[in-house]
Design a protein that fits this description.
- The complex is a heterodimer of chains A (844) and B (128).
- Chain A has 844 residues and is an alpha/beta fold.
- Chain A has 6 domains: 176 residues, FAD/NAD(P)-binding domain; 122 residues, FAD/NAD(P)-binding domain (3-Layer(bba) Sandwich); 62 residues, BFD-like [2Fe-2S]-binding domain (Arc Repressor Mutant, subunit A, Orthogonal Bundle), CATH 1.10.10; 57 residues, no CATH class; 115 residues, Alpha-Beta Plaits; 154 residues, 2-Layer Sandwich (Sulfite Reductase Hemoprotein, domain 1), CATH 3.30.413.
- Chain A has 25 helices and 38 strands.
- A 5-stranded parallel sheet of chain A has the order 3-2-1-7-19, covered by helices on one side.
- In chain A, a hairpin with a 4-residue loop joins strand 34 and strand 35.
- The C terminus of chain A is likely disordered.
- Chain B is globular, with a radius of gyration of 14 Å.
- Chain B has one domain: Rieske Iron-sulfur Protein (3-layer Sandwich).
- Chain B contains 1 helix and 10 strands; from the N terminus they run H-E-E-E-E-E-E-E-E-E-E.
- The longest helix of chain B has 6 residues.
- The chains are: A alpha/beta (844), B mainly beta (128).
Chain lengths: 844, 128
């Protein structure tokens, strides 16, 4: 390493922009001209701060961490703030006493939250909203408030009704608190939206159980009886368990000021269009940089600054362009789409505003056009921002149609073909339509491929619809075909089978597919038939559609034996039940293990043993646990009010009732549930496809969680439901999932792929926006009424029993390839040799 | 119902050597096989997987899945890939050509095939 003469680059701050700078320099500097040292004040490596709020919904810090590969030329020192820059000696000193010499210094220190100077702002229970540590502290405080033993709602006051304030309010609502937003301006999100858009935004978020007070400020905070009271400028007092300040940000320029670097009038280190400060060795990028006196609080301009500085450090001549300083924003805030782009407030001389305001439908759209009505300058969209992706790239271009028609309902649909090649499709990563089309031409035939080669759509994702349009325009079809035998998606196949009344695979494949099916479409059709109440899964032709688990009603293990799981609803089992399971396992020589779903798995059963094992279990009152099926597995529970000192509801009783209600229900993927008796969440309900957590007043329902390969926390769907309401919403949720999900698509991915996500799901199954809830409930009633234990069905039917033989010509001969050894006192398969023939090819 | 005997690699391979031909062993009644489903048979120490496709044809291949070593191919799902009759291993899902025994997901892998015939309603498998 010492043989190469590196230049030293020191980067102060490891946020999104600092991270981008490091990545870009390393990408473009294969010779290793620069050795980079990054000094981060936070104790964590750079993470996606734009997605900060998803942290309270269960996205982990690891998932939010920005990807970086280990690199010998990059050193990262975290949790060590720089305390001094000595520009004469070209040295920085850190809090821990490090001294680092630099040839180039980049300040990427970002911002600090602005906290208005009100009395009481330092009290315990007051927070800012900027870092993962802040969110950890807020979450802990919310938890404490939720479990405190006192009556009444838990509430929060959010100071600031801008983008960040509304994000904070949503996060607090997810944590179970009732937030009140206080905004000093006369409307919410005053930077992004105008008066008309703000009025609609306020009305729509108030429908989401958010209290809003505009035009007032917080004048003081005091502690009263263990809670906080915020006093407003109009004299009103608001009780709160938590107060969050999200009233804006200020550039973190203290270090630069102390080093004598010139700063802007409103803060921020002054830089030129190369992002260089007054010192030729010092640069500033991101929120701390004041470019021509102005700071930018969005990530896209910060990324552009990082790219410019990287280019300059490597001898390039890049400068900041006005396009790179685009402040356009699109977001979904509490279920409300908001977009703002270009000259949204019509500050251009002579600019005209064209407004279409439909308070009944809940949409507001404004276009700002030049004085001759020829050029689009900007716009505001609230309630429906679907046109943002096509409108924003048109800023500065000649209008392709009458501006009213462009935003009116049922007006002109602007296609991607209307955009010039120079139009920026992805403003986060500055990718033009031309670049996307080139990538498609070079073989990028789906959205992930375009993302990989252009970076378009990899940040906020708002341009993904346009990427899809460009793919369609290039004639690239996005296939949803199930497999080579069906051009339909699973959801379409469900509709076909439900609508036509066809009940055999042969008829489905003859009329609607080709060939004879495969291991993808046959189990998918079998699952659909089962969901539609097709009787026993081995009846008639259905037997041949099932994969081996459903065919033998047990789980295939690697040596050709099966495991057996009797249902133990809610994890509640009598001593007699335990003894029966123990005796069966002992008598058949089975290995036993407790599962994560609070039941007992018995391994090592041969096919021909399964009926005898199940005869004993069924006689003792057990029934199939469906551990083998794409079906409900378990409803895990904590002991709740039955035993627990802290329990708020009977979690075991509910878990047993839910498991019995949904047992045997087949779905596109296995699904699990859990019920916790209080907010301590001992049943880990939020890691389940549907999880229920008791509250003082009833139940909170969370959906879309799972463990497995990509763990996800479930998100709050509805709060404080009574048991009847809860069951009704779960009925609808499960049936809607069964009808519309793709094959092997778990609930989390299903919700994510849904246009409108969780909010759309809530509209459909809570507010009945499609008018299908009665139908979904009726379908579930049919399932519940038609349930019968599958194993009893086999034991009672000699024809079905006949299939449980090892060999057709030697029905009781054990498979000679199955052998066991003893490990820790139990039989286990003989350890396996490494497979010489390689891994299977991956197929869709 | 037509019952045809599947052409197999074994038969073709054995032809030039003028061997005495297969030794036929009865396994079960033909109607014991469900359409598009398999059964396993134990012939000495050889495990054979027998399948009846939707047109009534019966195929016999080795029962041992070469990828997992488990004797389970008879428990796979029968179907077709681009018109070729297949069974998918229930362990890791590779498809095997029921006629040639070739693995369609890995050309270096194949399972043995065996001739089959029906005599007096009984299914017979030919062993070398």
């Amino acid at each position: 390493m010492n043989s190469i003469d590196h230049r030293e680059l020191v980067v102060v701050g490891h946020g999104m922009v600092g991270h981008r700078l490091v990545q870009t320099v390393r990408d473009r500097d294969p010779q290793g001209t620069w050795r980079i040292t990054v000094l981060g004040e936070e104790g964590r490596p750079a993470y996606d701060r734009v997605a900060l709020s998803s942290y309270v919904d269960g996205v982990s810090a690891e998932e939010l961490t920005l990807p970086a590969t280990p690199d010998p030329l990059v050193r990262l020192h975290l949790g060590d703030a720089v305390v001094e820059v000595d520009r004469d000696a070209r040295l920085v000193r850190t809090a821990s006493g490090r001294e680092l010499r630099y040839d180039a210094l980049v300040l990427a220190t970002g911002s600090v939250p602005f906290v208005p100077p009100v009395a009481g702002r330092e009290l315990p229970g007051c927070f800012v909203y900027r870092t993962l540590d802040d969110l950890d502290a807020i979450t802990a405080a919310a938890r404490d408030a939720m479990v405190a033993e006192r009556p009444g709602r838990r509430s929060a006051v959010v100071v600031g009704g801008g983008l960040l304030g509304l994000e904070a309010a949503r996060a607090l609502r997810s944590l179970g608190l009732s937030p009140q937003v206080v905004e000093i301006a006369p409307r919410l999100m005053p930077v992004q939206v105008d008066e008309g858009g703000g009025a609609l935004l306020r009305r729509l978020v108030e429908n989401e159980d958010l209290a809003v007070r505009c035009g007032v400020s917080v004048t003081g905070i005091a502690e009263q009886r263990g809670r906080l009271v915020a006093t407003l400028s109009d004299g009103i007092e608001l009780d709160a368990d938590v107060v969050v300040f999200s009233a804006g940000i200020r550039p973190a320029d203290t270090l630069a000021r102390a080093a004598g670097l010139p700063v802007g009038e409103r803060g921020g280190v002054l830089v030129d269009n190369r992002c260089r400060t007054a010192d030729e060795h010092v640069w500033a990028i991101g929120e701390v940089a004041a470019l021509e006196g102005r700071t930018y609080g969005l990530v896209a301009p910060g990324y552009a600054m990082a790219e410019v500085v990287a280019d300059r450090l490597l001898g390039g001549t890049a400068t900041m362009t006005s396009a790179a300083l685009d402040m356009s924003t699109q977001l979904k805030m509490l279920g409300v789409d908001v977009a703002s782009f270009g000259d949204a407030h019509a500050t251009t001389a002579g600019a005209l505003e064209v407004v279409v305001n439909d308070p009944v439908a809940g949409s507001y759209a404004k276009l700002v056009v030049s004085d001759d009505a020829q050029t689009l300058l900007g716009g505001v969209l609230v309630g429906d921002a679907s046109k943002y992706a096509t409108l924003r790239p048109l800023v500065g271009a000649v209008l392709p149609a009458d501006p009213v028609a462009m935003i009116a309902p049922g007006g002109v649909e602007i296609g991607a073909d209307a955009l010039p090649d120079t139009a920026q499709i992805c403003s986060c990563n500055a990718v033009t339509k031309g670049a996307v089309c080139d990538a498609i031409g070079a073989g990028a035939h789906d959205v992930p491929a375009i993302k990989a080669c252009t970076r378009a759509g990899t940040s906020c994702g708002s341009c993904v619809p346009v990427l899809k349009k460009l793919l369609a325009q290039a004639g690239v079809e996005q296939s949803t075909a199930l497999c080579e035998h069906f051009t339909h998606s699973r959801a379409e196949l469900f509709e076909i089978i439900a609508g036509t009344g066809i009940r055999t695979f042969s008829e489905v494949v003859e009329k609607h597919g080709t060939g004879r099916g495969c291991d993808i479409c046959k189990p998918a059709v079998a699952s659909i038939l089962a969901s539609l109440g097709g009787g026993h899964v081995h009846d008639g032709e259905q037997a041949a559609l099932q994969d081996t688990n459903d065919h033998f009603l047990a789980n295939l293990q690697r040596n050709g034996t099966y495991s057996v799981v009797p249902r133990i609803p809610g994890g509640e089992i009598t001593p007699e039940g335990l003894i029966v399971i123990g005796e069966v396992a002992r008598d058949f020589g089975l290995y036993t293990k407790i599962t994560g779903g609070q039941r007992i798995d018995m391994f090592g059963a041969r096919v021909e043993q399964l009926p005898a094992i199940w005869r004993r279990l069924v006689d003792a009152g057990f029934e199939s646990g469906h551990a083998y099926g794409k079906a409900l597995r378990t409803v895990k529970s904590c002991v709740g009010t039955t035993w627990c000192r802290y329990g708020q509801q009977d979690s075991v009783g509910l878990a047993v009732a839910l498991e019995l209600r949904y047992r045997g229900l087949r779905a596109p993927h296995k699904f699990k549930s859990g019920v916790s008796g209080c907010a301590r969440e001992c049943a880990e309900a939020r890691s389940k496809d549907f999880g229920i957590i008791a509250t003082e007043h009833g139940w909170n329902l969370y959906v879309g969680g799972n463990g497995g390969f990509t763990p996800r926390h479930a998100e709050l769907l509805a709060s404080d439901l009574d048991t009847d309401e809860l069951v009704r919403v779960i009925d609808r949720f499960l049936m809607f999932y069964i009808r519309t999900a793709d094959r092997l698509q778990r609930t989390a991915a299903w919700i994510e792929a849904m246009d409108g996500g969780l909010d759309h799901l809530r509209a459909v199954i809570v507010d009945d926006s499609l008018g299908i809830c009665a139908d979904l409930e009726a379908a579930m009633e049919t399932h519940v009424a038609g349930y019968a234990d599958e194993w009893r069905g086999v034991l009672d039917d000699p024809a079905k029993l006949e299939r449980f033989v090892s060999f057709v010509n030697a029905p009781d001969a054990p498979d000679p390839t199955i052998t066991f050894v003893t490990e820790r006192g139990q039989p286990v398969p003989v350890p396996r040799e490494p497979v010489a023939v390689g891994m299977p090819g991956v197929r869709r | 119902m037509t019952i045809s005997i599947s052409p197999t690699v074994t038969e073709r391979d054995s032809a030039p050597t003028a061997s005495p031909g297969p030794r036929w062993e009865a396994v079960c009644r033909y109607d014991r096989l469900l359409p598009e489903r398999g059964v396993a048979a134990l012939l000495g120490d050889v495990q054979v997987a027998l399948f009846r496709t939707h047109d009534g044809t019966v195929h016999a291949i080795g029962n041992i899945d070469p990828f997992s070593g488990a004797a389970v191919l008879s428990r796979g799902i029968v179907g077709d890939r681009a018109g070729v009759a297949t069974v998918a291993s229930p362990v890791y899902k590779q498809a095997f050509d029921l006629v040639t025994g070739r693995c369609l997901d890995d050309p270096d892998v194949a399972v043995p095939t065996y001739p089959v015939r029906v005599a007096d309603g009984l299914l017979e498998v030919g062993l070398p």
